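User: quick one, sequence for these tokens?
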């Protein structure tokens, strides 16, 4: 018995270290995504860009994520998850640094899209690792992974704006974040073992009850529509809200950093939100979350302009958007189908969210140009969230995977 305990303890420690490094690596991924919108005003000034063009640059990385999501599934069938994670980190870290060498709008658009390719590769592989190794607690595991996004969204605005002010150039934070990505890539190579990254979950022998036998089913259709709407709203906010704070409300860079960091703090509800999503009807969880997001979004673009108020509202939107809706939409896509289709269902989720996010920045920039910030926010965030709240009522919980049972030996 003592020998067994001694054997288990080191393994548990290795699991914690390996999982911790993977979560930290995704934190850098989130930092990279969050950084560029903070620098958009400086980029616009240097390259003479309009708001629609700047908005497209801010969210074009999501095109890379959308395009790379499904092919990454093919790569995972041929190469190790650990290798795919490292290749993804290499691509987006290099893309971040190369962005500062852009000659103009066109080549910068390519570099920003390439960062999305790398980010999608890493995210898809990480979802496979965590959902396979922690098969008994998938929603909580995905929620824990989403903490990495929260920490990245907290750290990037503060560190990025500090570097921007200290060096007086948007190049400095881009270089720093790219180098950080390379450093974490090395840590993954050294500290993550194959028994963690390549686990299949078969040893735990669980079988799902319920779920569709094909991706062509009612719930997947509804969830895909919700994911498209969500991508437009989420990246309308993430891509252009910092520009709204700087150019419309005239916030200082340090204040923008504090406001955007508060969004990341809201994402820390991810694990709890995943737990609630497992226990309550998807109709209730999604409709209430989207309704809350609609109210918060309307207040962001029409309410008081004080730094504290904007930070509080961003915190609440972080809870609703990335903390609750993102986690549970991802989980419900998987629960809508049988176990053997889980990987493809995750691919549908990633592709649908990030395909619509590709045009989110351009769309809100175009709406601002035509109608102003308040109307643009009301249309692309508040109104779309209200639409999603209604669409959520079309989900059929009774057709989803309901629970897991131990297979008979």
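Assistant:
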């Amino acid at each position: 018995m003592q020998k067994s305990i001694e054997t288990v303890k080191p393994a548990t420690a290795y699991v914690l270290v390996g999982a911790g490094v993977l979560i930290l690596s995704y934190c850098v991924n989130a930092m990279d995504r969050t950084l560029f919108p903070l620098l958009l005003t400086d980029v616009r000034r240097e390259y003479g860009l309009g708001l629609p063009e700047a908005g497209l640059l801010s969210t074009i990385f999501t095109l890379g994520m959308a395009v790379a999501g499904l092919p990454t599934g093919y790569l995972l069938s041929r190469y190790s998850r650990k290798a795919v994670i490292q290749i993804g980190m290499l691509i987006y870290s290099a893309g971040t640094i190369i962005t500062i060498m852009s000659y103009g709008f066109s080549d910068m658009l390519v570099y920003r899209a390439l960062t999305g390719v790398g980010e999608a590769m890493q995210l898809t592989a990480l979802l496979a690792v965590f959902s396979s190794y922690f098969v008994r607690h998938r929603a909580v595991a995905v929620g824990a992974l989403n903490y990495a996004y929260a920490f990245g969204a907290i750290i990037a605005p503060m560190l990025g704006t500090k570097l921007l002010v200290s060096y007086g150039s948007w190049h400095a934070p881009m270089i720093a974040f790219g180098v950080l990505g390379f450093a974490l890539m090395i840590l993954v190579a050294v500290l993550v073992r194959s028994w963690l990254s390549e686990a299949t979950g078969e040893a735990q022998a669980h079988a799902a009850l319920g779920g569709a036998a094909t991706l062509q089913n009612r719930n997947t259709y509804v969830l895909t529509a919700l994911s498209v709407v969500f991508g437009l709203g989420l990246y309308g906010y993430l891509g252009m809200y910092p520009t709204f704070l700087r150019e419309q409300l005239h916030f200082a860079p340090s204040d923008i950093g504090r406001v955007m960091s508060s969004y990341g703090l809201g994402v820390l509800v991810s694990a709890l939100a995943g737990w609630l999503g497992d226990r309550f009807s998807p109709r209730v969880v999604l409709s209430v979350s989207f309704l809350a997001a609609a109210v918060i979004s309307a207040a962001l673009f029409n309410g008081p302009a004080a730094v504290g108020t904007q930070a509080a509202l961003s915190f609440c939107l972080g809870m609703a958007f990335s903390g609750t809706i993102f986690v549970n939409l991802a989980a419900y896509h998987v629960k809508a189908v049988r176990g053997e289709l889980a990987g493809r269902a995750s691919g549908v989720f990633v592709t649908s969210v990030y395909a619509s996010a590709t045009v989110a920045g351009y769309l809100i920039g175009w709406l601002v140009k035509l109608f102003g910030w308040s109307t643009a926010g009301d249309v692309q965030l508040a109104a779309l969230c209200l639409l999603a709240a209604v669409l959520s009522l079309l989900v059929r919980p009774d057709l989803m995977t309901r629970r897991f049972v131990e297979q008979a030996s």
